[in-house]
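Hi, here's the filled form for the chain we discussed.

Project: internal
Contact: R.S.
Residues: 152
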Amino acid sequence: MSTEANPLAQLCAALVKARSEMPTPKKTATNPHFRSKFAPLDEIIACAMPALNANGIMVVQSPGIHEGEMKLHTSLAHVDGAALDCGYYPIKGNTPQELGSAITYARRYALTAILGLCAEDDDDGEAAEARGSRPVVQPPKVAPKKLGVEIV
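And the returned structure, exactly as it came back:
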């Protein structure tokens, strides 16, 4: 099917082109709990939006209630009318500050997932295993061995 007659195909073609124009976000922030590096939301937006805008793609991310829970909805829309629903990401928080932080976190994850961007160190699923924070590995303290040579 021709992309001219299919708005979704046009969106996909524009997304492929936009993605090829995006630099990899710089991992400028550190997670203090896991001591891993990640790209903050502003860095991801700075990397993605120029290419998305140049290719007629808009990102819509809005928090709201879905199936009785607070969630972030993310979608992509193209100037030709096609839209790609990227689903819902759960948001948890008891205070406005907690909700704001959770929304930022959800926006970062949803945006990098739909755009195929790598924005954090790969921990091989360790964080999902709930094993606690990774210990900081310190080199063992070993007394220097005497080699039979005396330094004067």
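Let me know if anything looks off before we file it.
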